[in-house]
Amino acid sequence: MTKQKNLNDQASFSAPIEDLQVRITFLDDLVEQLNEQVTRQSIEIADLKKQMQLLYQRVESADLSEGIAAFDPMTNRPPHY
Fold first, then answer.
1. What is the 3-state secondary structure (H, E, C) of 22-74?
2. pTM for the model
3. Distance between terminal CA atoms of the chain?
4. Whether residue 44 has pLDDT greater than 80
5. Which intervals of the chain form a coiled coil (predicted)?
6. 13 closest CA partner among 21, 23, 24
7. Does the structure show a pLDDT above 60 at 20?
8. Distances (CA, A) of 72 to 27, 65, 66
9. Region of 38 on the Ramachandran plot (φ > 0 left; ψ -120 to 50 alpha; else beta)
């Protein structure tokens, strides 16, 4: 009788432990997937920052005054004045 009780006790303890092991394995896999996603996004963000810096440099280096006449409010009055 005590042998049967010991087997039942072991079975009742092993089931929750196995459930926890399965959950830990699942969570480890999930953490690894999230880590990979964060790594990909970090690389993408770094690339986008480089592209933005290049665009800012192009805008700053471009002479924006080409083809645009200076505005003088006294001589360039709209027709309704």
1. HHHHHHHHHHHHHHHHHHHHHHHHHHHHHHHHHHHHHHHHCCCCCCCCCCCCC
2. 0.56
3. 110
4. yes
5. 17-51
6. 21
7. yes
8. 68, 15, 17
9. alpha
